[in-house]
UniProtKB/TrEMBL annotation:
Protein name as it appears in the record: DUF4307 domain-containing protein
Keywords, ordered alphabetically: Membrane, Transmembrane, Transmembrane helix
InterPro entries in alphabetical order: DUF4307
Keyword Membrane: yes
Species this chain originates from: Streptomyces collinus (strain DSM 40733 / Tue 365)
Entry-linked Pfam families: DUF4307
Residue stretches spanning the membrane: 25-45
Length: 132
C-alpha cells in the first residue's frame, strides 16, 4: 500500500510560523547590529575628537639618575594639556614618571624634557597626552 502525502495548498493558509520567526530574527539582528555600529562610532568619534593633543617620543638618552626625552607634540592651536612619560629599569621596574605641561598657540612643540629617575632607566615611554 502506498500512502498519499497530503500537502497543504500553497499560499492558502499564509506563511508558516518558521518564516515569520526567521523574519523577526532578521529584523532584530539588523536593529541590534545598527545600534552596535552606532555605539562604536560614537565612542570612536569622542575618543578622537576630544583628544586635542598627540605626541611621540623621537629619541631618549638615559643616564644614571635621569632620562632626557626628545618629545614631539602636535596639538590644536591654543590647547593646553600635559603628556605623561615613564622610564623603566632593565628588570622592568618603574624608576621614573612625570607629567610635562604644554600650552600656547603653537600647534607643534618639539622639546627635550628631563625625566628624573631613581635608578638607571633603560626606556622612555609615552603613556598618553590629555587636554586640561
Amino acid at each position: 500500500m502506498s500512502t498519499a502525502h497530503a500537502r497543504l495548498p500553497e499560499g492558502r493558509y499564509g506563511r508558516s510560523s518558521d518564516e515569520r520567526a526567521d523574519r523577526r530574527l532578521k529584523v532584530a539582528g539588523t536593529v541590534l547590529g545598527a545600534l552596535l555600529l552606532a555605539l562604536v562610532g560614537y565612542f570612536a568619534y569622542h575618543y578622537i575628537a576630544q583628544n586635542g593633543i598627540s605626541a611621540q617620543v623621537i629619541t631618549f638618552d638615559a643616564s644614571r639618575d635621569a632620562v632626557k626625552v626628545h618629545l614631539e607634540v602636535h596639538k590644536d592651536a591654543g590647547a593646553n594639556g600635559y603628556c605623561t612619560l615613564r622610564s623603566q629599569s632593565a628588570d622592568g621596574a618603574e624608576v621614573g614618571r612625570a607629567d610635562f605641561r604644554f600650552s600656547g598657540a603653537a600647534t607643534r612643540i618639539d622639546r627635550v624634557v628631563t625625566l628624573r629617575t631613581t635608578a638607571k632607566g633603560t626606556t622612555a615611554e609615552l603613556l598618553g597626552c590629555h587636554t586640561g
